[in-house]
């Protein structure tokens, strides 16, 4: 959701005509919709939808068809929902180019979760959608490998998610951090930043930091708990006897998030699957080295820029990776000196939006590209 928001905001800023059609479930927070509308991006929101996977609503078809009338290109973000299938099918029928972004949902690990309904959808819907789209959009080379595995032979566009420029400008202190979490005052700490979910490999990370050699280095777990997985995390913390050095903050944003990132000794993301990993870029942009598993698709950036360590999804590998970062200052020095430059050069939404204008224009072809409408 935040990647889509960042992209359309940047596209709007460079003069593109962009509109969004989306769905909502009962109880969803739709504040992001209001934010987009406030800056002049039309958003049509349909719901409440039925079923947590396909998210069906009888109003989807008519709204999608209405939006297609003025669209030069359709860019879908996701695969399972009815709105994605309807947009791809109807756009293809009228000859409008379609860019399909799977958002990591076609990764083998993701497909193994709730596998039966996904197998049915793959057979009767998704494979047909893949065949119908004009191009597939992946955020990394690693993620793009699923295209050939699924028999797709069309155009593949590899373009990353981005970050806004604003967090890169200011140097946050730690006033809010020390005020809200006095236990961290003046301390280094290991940071996990993301939603509480079993795919994030928190079981591995917790077991790794339970080693006595890390007893003086608190672990901060920051992020929302939308599925109730935090209860499992807290049970493991209690079992390992490390409750006195694990701080659970809940959701963080704004200045507090910036302070957590910039003051951490390192960011750890030991995910079993991560099709991109925006938080890796956020940490590097804040000058903080990272430890990531080899299942985080951005791990090649971490390796090539020498701003952290890539580990396997095992406790021993993570423990060894922590030791490497903590005992070798080059990772911190590289992130601090070159992190912001790397983000500004390759991963800002402004630069990425300009590239998308070029991609869309190529896909539109003979249509007018003086003002591509997405």
Describe this structure as you would to a colleague.
By secondary structure, this protein is an alpha/beta fold. Helix content is 46%, strand content 13%. It has 17 helices and 12 strands. The strands form 3 sheets. Strands 9-8-7-10-11-12 form a 6-stranded parallel β-sheet, with helices on both faces. A 4-stranded parallel β-sheet has the order 3-4-5-6. Strand 7, helix 10 and strand 8 form a beta-alpha-beta unit. Helix 3 packs parallel to helix 4 (82-94). It is globular and about 65 Å long. The relative contact order is 0.13. The model has no long low-confidence stretch (mean pLDDT 93).
In short, what is this structure?
By secondary structure, the chain is an alpha/beta fold. It is built from 17 helices and twelve strands.
Overall structural class, as computed from helix and strand content, comes to alpha/beta
Strand element count: 12
What's the story with the biggest beta sheet?
Answer: 6 strands, parallel
Tell me the quaternary state: single chain
C-alpha-based Rg, rounded: 21 Å
**Numbering strands along the chain, what is their spatial order in the largest sheet?**
9-8-7-10-11-12
- Measured as a percent range, the helix fraction is 40-55%
Shape: globular
Work out the helix count. 17
Low-confidence stretches: none
List the secondary-structure elements in sequence, H or E.
HEHEHEHEHHEHEHHEHEHEHEHEHEHHH
Sheet-strand content, in percent, reads: 5-15%
Distance between the termini: 17 Å
Mean of residue pLDDT values? 93
